[in-house]
Structure formats: structure tokens, C-alpha cells
Amino acid sequence: MPTFEYAPAPESRAVVDLQSSYGLFINGEFVDGSGTGFKSISPATEEVLAEVSEATDADVDAAVRAARTAYTRVWSRMSGTDRGKYLYRIARILQERAREFAVLESLDNGKPIKESRDIDIPLAAAHFFYNAGWADKLEYASLGTNPRPHGVVGQIIPWNFPMLMLAWKIAPALATGNTVVLKPAETTPLTALLFAEVCQQADLPPGVVNIVTGAGPTGQAIVDHAGIDKLAFTGSTGVGKMIARAISGTRKKATLELGGKAANIVFDDAPIDQAVEGIVNGIFFNQGHVCCAGSRLLVQESIASEVESRLKRRLGTLRVGDPLDKNTDVGAINSRAQLDRIVALTDAGEGEGATRWDNGCELPSKGFWFRPTVFTGVTQTHRIAQEEIFGPVLSVLTFRTPQEAVAKANNTPYGLSAGIWTEKGSRILWMADQLKAGVVWANTFNQFDPTSPFGGYKESGYGREGGRHGLEPYVKTGA
Ligand code: ADP
Question: How far apart are CA 222 and CA 229, in angstroms?
């Protein structure tokens, strides 16, 4: 039960001007796709928001051709300074239209408005500002001699941070002089289509950014298209492996940002209340639909029961419900399919003998919802300790020594992120050195910044996004 009640504080939807149907954005214009349409719904209410086109192979081909023409005739010939001006313009428009983007993102994705408003959209704008600054300074970014673009880049993004992933992908690609064909995820296409309007508003030359909507087959058409020079993919490890196989033996370059099963490690000298906040942020932020989520809590045995009881008390105060209410902490699960996956894995957790607890909150009658859930008594072999649940579900394991914490943290096919909670700086440095994870947070979790590289080890993928490192995959260097 919440400790006290809040009056409803819903955000107005009036700021969003939704059309009933959308075409594909190719060569600077919205065009009818040649495939059948599909519906994008609000996962919080199952209301149909808009009909969207499923791009066919022919549509993808048209988009790649438009991107190639724009690359050859305009974008690759433009100075970095001028490319930067377009990126700054896009960044400023995103700021001006931030409220509209935030509301639409929460409607289409189900995430709480306070996250889309305070994190997703401001960070998306920040990625454009940051990369705009690099556009005329690429020779000084230590990328190698004579950095130059690959050409046409195919980009496929997931549904958990639709606009933010779009910005992670498009901003460095354009800053380095590439042109883009981007496919948003099939359950969250709407903010990418609104971004297409931003490209028009910014007078971006036609064909520099093309947005094709659709599901797996549309993504596959991008991957397989002979006119694509480089791929950037964020999504599941399964699809990432298929992409790696599909492009092996071709000249296509790729970066893959895949799944994770991060350990959030709490030592007995950690400030416990802060650690509890970090645990909550680590796994319940964005309904746990976060590849770097702290989905495994490793807590030192001597403080395990105290952390567990404080954590449960805190989870009792989380407000689950209407994503558009500014007081909502946890929104809707993104789709029926994802909810089914979460249910199947949590059932397996119970079946394998872990102890299940949830915060008992009331859930709306329509839409896709899952209560914040904690499993204790989890062992290394349980599926809920090994597989990515991608939902608001925490698996708690214990350890006695730092060595044991490291061994357990690294005992996963993934290696995207990790968290360490302790007051000892030397222990933080030792642990960070031992952990096989691309990002290690100390006494915090889920901090993102455009200047900071992000990416994984092992089955979490390869390549880095963000920071100077994030420019590297978008350029070739040397003679
Ligand atoms: P998630 O588990 O996050 O939904 P997916 O890997 O299924 O991850 O989806 C991420 C993105 O990859 C989405 O845009 C999806 O449409 C796309 N996708 C799915 N299957 C394929 C495929 N075979 N080839 C290319 N892209 C795909």
C-alpha cells in the first residue's frame, strides 16, 4: 500500500496531434508503403493510437536508394561545420517540442511521463547537441587519420527507449557524414515518425534520414540490402546473433548492443538507504525494460535480511499506473508478448524453488501490467538468475567475500553493466577491474550521458555508443 494517496495528476494529451495513419518517411517525404498496415497501441489502455505502414523489401530499397543519393550528392560533400548546424537545429527543435515528444513516448511505450519528460527526451536532445559539436572536429577526435563516413547506415532500434535509441543512432551517424535508414520497433514507431517531421522542420536535405516502420522482416530487409555499408542494432541477443551471421562474409560493418543481466553488488559497508534507492532505480526504472538493468542483486550475507526488508518497504510506496500521471513511478509493460515472457520466466522462478514476493499494488483492469516483484532464495542455476527477464523483477542472491561477488557477477553470458555499493574507494577500483562489464557504476546506477561510451562484452554485443568512442564505428580511417 502507498504510504499516502496522491490525487490524479494526468498530463494533457492535447499537445500531441496524432494522425490516424502514417506512411513511411523516404527522401524527405511521407509516402504510402506498399505493405499492409499495422496498429500501434497504448500498452496502458490497449487503445489504438495510429495505423502505421509495414515497409516491404521494395520500400526498404527505395529508402536505401534515397539515402545513397543524398549521401553522394549532398551530405558527404557538405562541410562538417554545415552538418553540425543541422544537428544543432534538430537538437533545438527537440527541446522546443520536448513536451509533445514526452507525451507521445509515454502513450506509445507505456513509460511514466516523469521518465520520458526528464530523461528520454532531454537526453535525446543532448545526444544531438553533443554530436553536433564533433561534426567539424572529427580530425581531432583521435579516430585515426583521415576519418570519413562509410556511406549509408542501416539502424534498427528496440522499443524500450524509442527516441533515445533513435538519437544514439542518428546523431553520430549524421555528425560523421553518413546517411541513414532507421527502423523503429513495431510496438513503438510513433516518436520516430514525429522525428521525421522534425527533419522536415529543420530543412534537413531529403534522404539524409529515412524512417521505415515494420517488424522483423523489415529489419531483415535492411540487414540484407546490398546498399547498406554499416549496421547499428540494439535489441535482443537472439536477433543480434542472426544479424552477425547474416553479414558475415560481407563488407558490412556492424555494432551490436544486446542484452544484459547486470549484477548490482551491495557490500556491508554501503549506505543502505542510498543502496536501496539504487536497487529500485536499477531494476524498476522503465519497468525493468532496460538492457543494463540491475536485475541481479548481489548482497553481502551479513546485511541481506536488512536490505531485503528495507527494499520491500520501499517497493510498497511505488505507484504503478497511468503513464501520463506525473506521480507514476512504474508504467505499463510494453506489449502483451513481453508480458507473456515476464509471466513465463517468473513462473519458472517459482517452479525452480525461489521465493516470490510482489508489492501487492492494484493494477488497472485494461492494458499490460506487472507488479514490482522480488525473488529471494535465488541460486546461480535458476533461469531467473541467468536469463534476461526485461521486466520489473529482481532476483536476489547473496555473497560473503568480494571474490565470491566477482565470480557470481561474471557468471553470465552477458557483460553490459554492473553496480558496486561500498564506501571503500579501493574496493570500487578492484571490483571495477575484475567485473566483465562495459559500464560499471559505483554508488549509483543507470546514469547516462552523451559524453560517456556505452556498450558490452561477451553476448551483450560489440562496439560502443556515446562519447568520442561512439563516433568510431561510423568512420573509416587511413589512406
Ligand atoms: P526485443 O526483445 O527488444 O523486442 P528484438 O531484437 O526482437 O528485441 O527487437 C529489436 C529490433 O529488431 C526491433 O526493431 C525489431 O523489429 C527488430 N528485428 C526483429 N527481428 C529482426 C530480424 N530478423 N532482422 C532484423 N531486425 C529484426
Answer: 11
Contact 158 CB / ligand 1 (< 6 Å): yes
Position in ligand 1 atom list of the atom nearest CA 185: 14
Kindly state which CATH superfamily the domain 21-257+458-476 is placed in. Aldehyde Dehydrogenase; Chain A, domain 1 (3.40.605.10)
* CA 217 to ligand 1 center in whole angstroms: 9
| Å from CA of 237 to ligand 1 middle | 9
Q: Please tell me the residue having the least CA distance from ligand 1 atom 24.
A: 220
Q: Is 239 in the pocket of ligand 1 (CB under 6 A)?
A: yes
Q: What is the pLDDT of residues 150-163, one digit of tens each?
A: 999 999 999 999 99
Question: What does the pLDDT look like over 309-360, one tens digit per residue?
Answer: 999 999 999 999 999 999 999 999 999 999 999 999 999 999 999 999 999 9
Do 21-257+458-476 and 263-442 come out as alike in CATH topology? Answer: no
CA distance 462 to 157: 15
Q: Is the pTM of this model over 0.70?
A: yes
Rounded to the nearest angstrom, the distance between the alpha carbon of 303 and the centre of ligand 1 is 40
For 20, list phi and psi in degrees, rounded to 5. -75, -30
Mutation pick for ligand 1 pocket among 54, 160, 164, 239 (CB with most ligand atoms within 8 Å): 239
Q: Closest ligand 1 atom to the C-alpha of 159?
A: 3
**DSSP-assigned states of every residue in 192-246:** HHHHHHHHHHTTPPTTSEEE---SHHHHHHHHH-TT--EEEEES-HHHHHHHHHH
Average pLDDT, the chain: 97
Residue 186, ligand 1, Cβ within 6 A: yes
| Cα atoms found within 13 Å of the Cα of residue 2, Cβ hemisphere only | 12
Ligand 1 atom index nearest CA of 186: 16
Q: Taking a C-beta distance cutoff of 8 angstroms, is the pair 382, 281 a contact?
A: no
Residues annotated as catalytic are 257
Residues 380 and 358 sit within 8 Å (Cβ to Cβ): no
Mutate to test the pocket of ligand 1, among 156, 223, 228, 242 (most ligand atoms within 8 A of CB): 156
List the residue whose alpha carbon is closest to atom 25 of ligand 1.
219
Dihedral, 223, 224, 229, 233 alpha carbons, nearest 10: 10
Atom of ligand 1 nearest to the CA of 157: 14
Of the CATH numbers 1.20.81.30, 3.30.780.10, 3.40.309.10, 2.60.40.2230, which one belongs to the domain with range 263-442?
A: 3.40.309.10
pLDDT at 1 over 70: no
In whole angstroms, how far apart are CA 472 and each of 142, 280, 312, 457?
9, 34, 43, 17
Structural domain boundaries in the chain: 21-257+458-476, 263-442
